[in-house]
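Materials and Methods. Structural model of 1-phosphatidylinositol-4-phosphate 5-kinase. The 427-residue sequence of 1-phosphatidylinositol-4-phosphate 5-kinase from Schizopora paradoxa was retrieved and submitted for structure prediction as follows.
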Amino acid sequence: KGDGMQVIGEGHVNYVLMYNMLSGIRTCVSRCGAKISRPLTDDDFKARHKFSFDIYGNELTPSAKYDFKFKDYAPWVFRELRENYFCIDPADYLVSLTGEYKLNELLSPGKSGSFFYFSKDLRFIIKTIHHTEHKFLLRILKEYYTHVKQNPHTLISRFYGLHRVKLPHGRKIHFVVMNNIFPADKVYEKFDLKGSEVGREYPEEKAALALDPTLKDLNWIKRGRSLELGPEKGALFEEQLRRDTELLKSVNVMDYSLLVGIYKVEQDARDTHLNRRGTMYKFSPPQIKRKPTTTSKGSSPEAAAMRKAVRTSAPERVDASGSGSRISEEDASSAAQADLFHEDEGGLRARDDYGQPLERIYYLGVIDILTPYNTRKKLEHLWKGLQHDSHKISPVPAVEYGNRFFDFIRRNIRGVGKVESSNAEAP
Ligand code: ATP
Ligand code: CA
Ligand code: CA
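The predicted structure was written out as tokens:
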């Protein structure tokens, strides 16, 4: 036990749950994906598809090892998000998550009681969420979707699916599938930043011993960290974060954080060595190897077979105007745009105030965005406010939370507006 991860294999206490989650995802994503793409309607945001699994199987579901029910929420909306905005190849998605029924469980997640499961190749994360978070995501789905559509570079968590498993005795487990902000093959100094100081410290003595700690605001300050993004990317990042925070304020949410991973480029060799020895992650590296192919999309034999099973071939996809070419242009442009903060090894290269690259890469994302400022939080605010300065504690109303969050991060961005932009153009 400790930090790091553990593979869930047969016999693990959560094996049945994992099996059910993956079987459900596989079935519902394949079914939706097999249909011809069409423009979204308002009803798609409220849609729910139910599946019932048992050992026999039926026309909707294949046979499964266990009895359970599965519910897929707003499948068309998430499909659209995955394929058109987050540029996830449908076959890759299923292969990564369900190619083999194996997930890695994060051993020391947050305080909320959520479980985190990483796909075998670590690209995707399944997070179990509370029923209130689930209801909240459904309530803001339209705003979320619109925001992603209008902000292809958004830093907010990418949600790929929202599902529910119901076990025979009636227990319901809600979960989301989202992106892992950190590519698998590196070691990071990680921070979870809220812009709050109260209770926002991971004890440094503990951090020195921990395998993969996520540090907090006070560690960030004490270690003298800043976001060295250079004038150009710094300004873009600040603007994107401002827009993202505006959305979160407008839907009355709080408690989210900016997750920051700092990867030191010169440590490359040592880090690889660490990973190989399994010091960093307690499981083997991804085994799904991509063969070089003529297409840019993943085409391992596994993926190819999966693609065939999953959906009709690409040319059959049509958009509202009935022209196949418009869609592929859109796909191409959103793919190019998706790279703004992920250009350098999937992250953002650190730059000095003149825009010159430094030996670090940042991986950034806004996570844990499903806590509305509700009654429970209001009470917590009152109670904590009796003990501390009521503006410095973390549960404050959403607008105040957002402003404090954004101000904190903005103060920590270096390089913006410090140098003439001509210097920033240097390669
Ligand atoms: P709490 O409500 O107590 O903060 P939580 O259970 O809601 O906890 P999160 O804040 O979502 O959990 O995440 C806990 C930790 O898991 C993060 O600090 C981070 O280390 C890791 N984590 C969460 N989401 C991601 C992600 N998308 N990519 C990479 N790591 C993540
Ligand atoms: Ca959190
Ligand atoms: Ca949370």
